[in-house]
Structures are given as structure tokens and as C-alpha cells.
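Example 4.3 (complexes with small molecules)
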Amino acid sequence: MPVVNPMDLSGRHVLVTGASSGIGRATAVLLSRLGARVTLTGRDADRLQQTVEIMAGDGHRAAPFDLGAIDEIPAWLRDCAQVGGPLSGLAHCAGVQVSKPIRNADAAFMSDMFRINIASGLALARAFRQRGSAVEGAGIVFVASASAFVGQAGNVVYCATKGAVVSAARALAVELARDRIRVNCVCPALVDTEMADRFRSTMSEAQFEEYLQHYPMGIGRPEDVANAIAFLIADTARWMTGTSLLLDGGLLAG
Ligand SMILES: NC(=O)c1ccc[n+]([C@@H]2O[C@H](COP(=O)([O-])OP(=O)(O)OC[C@H]3O[C@@H](n4cnc5c(N)ncnc54)[C@H](OP(=O)(O)O)[C@@H]3O)[C@@H](O)[C@H]2O)c1
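Answer. The structure with NAP bound is encoded below.
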């Protein structure tokens, strides 16, 4: 019997948001190595092209788009599915993290954070279930955060947005099962990306060293998250929906 690789994505079309940087870039690269044809998005066209250049195979397409334009998402995603074919997966990696104590969190700040971190994902799910956008059994993966489960002073609004992502994935899993669409999320703790660099710059060296003590296995690499996302999109997770996969180097176990 030939060995069948359940993570083989040959011939499948996957949309990756946040593909110009960090976790999204690592995800686009891994999915391409698994055989997928990837549509990549983010706002920065040059950085999206840099990702395309390190991907395997061909047929990939950079489609720059600002996910803050919530009401434009369904038409934009329909175009992506028309150009590249119905989607087998969506890895929604785009997100923003800005540290701010609650005393300084005004309505505009809250609205911006919720718009990118949760409303964009809901609109993408709405778009994904449109007729012709996705194939049967397709998988959506949202990148939430371990911040959904652990409180952090100065990071309240971000934590709230990521808690909302976990809840949204669970409810969408139930609602979209009738469309044969699976919805899961991954919840990484600190991963070595530009976002982590910005987070780190809000602390002194001593504070950061103290923070690292909470990570028995150290902080993560973007590829650690990409592996889990690929697993949830591929046939390996054919029977998984509504799950939140914690990726935290042991942070919450301690
Ligand atoms: N790094 C961590 O420690 C960590 C931990 C837990 C969860 N996460 C989550 O993982 C995801 C990826 O984070 P990362 O560390 O890879 O961050 P990153 O390196 O800062 O990348 C963020 C990505 O989001 C995109 N993005 C931001 N605003 C956008 C908008 N309005 N429209 C379209 N794209 C937008 C950016 O693209 P453009 O700049 O090109 O628009 C970029 O590709 C985020 O959801 C984050 O909350 C990260």
C-alpha cells in the first residue's frame, strides 16, 4: 500500500491573511511546501511579494487588501475564489497588538483593535460560506492567542479581542457545520515575530527576562504556529471543528 500523507495539500487553494510578516508569512511558506496554491494578503504589497519569493511551487498570488474595510470583505474574497478557485482553507493570521492600560483605552482605540482582531475574521467567515467560495470540508483557522486565557496588565483590550476570537470560532463551528465548513483556532503565547519585538520594547531587559521564566520550553517560532495551522486546514483535522489549540511552550501548565 502506498503511504498517503494526510497533510498533502496538492491542488488546494488556501487564503492566508497577515502573509507579509511573522506567523502569516511562515504559514504561507509551509502551505506552499505542502503543495497548496496560496493567495496571500496584507496591506504591504512589497512584503507580500517577498513572501511569494520564498515559497515553493507556483500559482501563488499576492492580493493586497486592508481588512479594516469590513463591508468590502465578502466581494473581495469572492474575487479571490474566482481567480484562484474555490478555497479549501483560510488561515486568518492578520492581527494587531498595542499595549495600553485601560485608563487610556478610548473608544477609537477599542474600535480599531476589535475591527482588525475580531470583526475582520467574522466578515471573512461570512464571505467564506458564500456559494462558490469554498469547497466541502474546507477549514477556517483563526489565530487567537494564549492572551484569551491569561490576564496581562496593560493588554486588556487585546486579551478581550482574542477571547472573542475563541468564542467566535466555537459558535461558527456550530453554525457553519451545515455548510460543511470547519472552524478552529490556534492560541499561541509569545512567538518571535515583529509583533513580539514591539511587545518586548514596552519592557525593560530585566522585566523581559523575568517574563521568560514563565516559559518552560522558551518562546515559540512562527513555524511552530504554522505547523498547527497546516494540521487544522489539512485532512489531518477532517473531524475537528470548534477547537482551540494552545501553543504556549508550557506557559499555562505552570
Ligand atoms: N507574535 C506573537 O507573540 C503572537 C502571540 C499570540 C498571537 N499572535 C497573533 O498572531 C497573528 C500574527 O501575528 P505576528 O506576530 O505574525 O504579527 P506581525 O509580524 O506584526 O504581522 C501582522 C500581520 O497582520 C497584518 N495586518 C495588520 N493589520 C492589517 C490590516 N488592517 N489589513 C490587513 N492586514 C493587516 C500585517 O500586514 P500589513 O502590515 O502588510 O498590513 C502583518 O502581515 C496576530 O493575530 C497576532 O495577534 C501573535
